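Sample 1 of the test manifest.
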Amino acid sequence: MTLDGLDGDISIRTLLFGVYAERAALRECSARVAAGSTVSDLVEELRRAEGWSWLPRRVVVAVNQSYAEGGTRLSDGDEVALIPPVAGG
Amino acid sequence: MTVAREVDASRIRAWITPDSLENFAPLAACGSEADGAALVFEGRVRATNEGREVSSLAYEAYAEMAEQELEAICGEALDRFAVSSAFAAHRVGELGLKEVSVVVKVAAPHREPCYAASRWIIEALKSRLPVWKHERYADGSSVWVGAPAAASGAGP
């Protein structure tokens, strides 16, 4: 269990790459969401609070460096990466 | 999260590196005296992509995750095919034409599983590795490959 802040918010280290970093003009930010929030809640909050309407609602994400589903529950201090379409090789 | 694996760690290696992959020396450790076959695949920067003339490109990676993911892919190849070792490396940073962007080496007692495993690894990394390609074209425009058109960079 994680001890969340008294105000019921948790802090999420959010990482951006490629075209998303370009659109947001930043590579990293700290997002605050309500305790108990899921990945989808975080994405919705970023679209609203940051004005990132270009961010797909079903964007691929990794939580703490592993691919994760939208329903994954977040904990304080988690690292969430927003993953644009990959193009390695 | 760590996945328990029976495989000896020295048989799986992965690198995300800004250094040249031309004659990448660590690949020499892939395979043993039990292996009668070894196969190296190189991906290189091609001068054209989808009909456009490429001048240079840059790869960006979520490096920590990409290295873990590439290592996981190599491990899965050992589970799926009769190969004894799988090493892979992916470049990041600025690359010129013909430079090696990715290299995969597999070794096995016999050749057939080498071809199958090598093919599988390159397809898996193309679909899973958190790596992004920023292509620049001769006409001065550029694009993040695979990104939706509306979200692309300075392209026309």
